[in-house]
Write a structure and sequence with these properties.
Layout lengths: L6 E8 L7 E7 L1 H4 L3 H10 L15 E5 L5 H16 L15
Antiparallel strand pairs: 1-2, 2-3
Length: 102
């Protein structure tokens, strides 16, 4: 991850169960962020709006989101919630996050 960016939102990832939907993968540089992916997942769940992540890979610093049938305004709210949850830690300011193609 480039220096100064501690959250990377990658391209769509295929559903591992074969369902016809994609997931967005979030990779967290835990050293730069000063928090781990499990803490970020908890902050997202407890935020407003509440954002639930797939956190099976949290130990590797990876969270995933299923963006099934979200409207543009809902995606904007999701990105804002992620930026707020990441910036809760005072270590440094995050680079504004955006989904690919937005």
């Amino acid at each position: 991850m480039p220096r100064g960016i501690w959250v990377a939102i990658g391209a769509a990832v295929a559903d591992p169960t074969g369902l016809p939907l994609s997931r967005v993968q979030i990779e967290l540089d835990t050293q730069q962020a000063g928090q781990d992916a499990a803490q970020l997942a908890k902050a997202l769940r407890e935020g407003a709006p509440s954002v639930w992540t797939l956190d099976q890979q949290a130990a590797r610093g990876v969270l995933q989101l299923e963006l099934v049938a979200l409207r543009d305004d809902e995606i904007g709210a999701l990105v804002d919630a992620l930026a707020r949850a990441v910036s809760r830690h005072p270590r440094q300011r995050p680079v504004p996050a955006r989904f690919p193609g937005m």
